[in-house]
Specification:
It comes from Vibrio barjaei. This protein has strands at 35-45, 52-65, 68-77, 86-94, 99-112, 115-129, 134-142, 147-155. The model is unreliable at 4-16 (pLDDT under 50). The protein is 0% helix and 58% strand. The protein is elongated. The protein is mostly beta strands. It contains no helices and eight strands.
Length: 157
Amino acid sequence: MKAVSFYALPLLLFSGMSLAVDLPALPSQHDASPHNFFLSSGTKLGSSDSFDTWNIDSGYSYSIFDSLDVYIGARLNNSHESIDQGFLSGVSYNVSDRISVKSTLRGYQYEENNERQGAMAAEISSRMRLTENLDVHATFDFEKIQQGVEVGLGFRF
C-alpha cells in the first residue's frame, strides 16, 4: 500500500497590505448631475369658491451650487376660465436639508376692458419638512390684479 502524504501550504499574512482591489464606482455613486427636470402640482381655490384649479409646473433646473438652483418651465392648469398659465423662471435655495426658499417670475394674462393683457407675476415660497413625507409651506403671490398668501401642508409619496 502506498503512503499518502499531505503537504501543508504555509499561510502568509501581510500586515498592513491589502490584496483586495477596489471596484469601480457604480453609476449611482458618481457625482450628481447639475441637470434636473421637475414636475410639481398644487391646487388653488377658484374664483367661484367652489371650484378647485390644479396647477402643474414642469421644466428644467440647473444646479449652480450645492444648494442653489435656477430653473425655467411652464405652468398649466385645468380651468377654462383661468388665464394663470404660461412660462416661468426662478431661483430655488435650500437653506438646510429641511428648509427651502423659492422665488418665481411667471407670465399670465388678465382681462381689462374686455381685452386680454399680458403681465408678469412674482411668487415667493418657503417649505419646511416636518417628517419624511410631510411638510408645511407658505407662498406669497403678487399679481397686478390681486395678491394672495397661502399656507398649507404638503404630502410627498
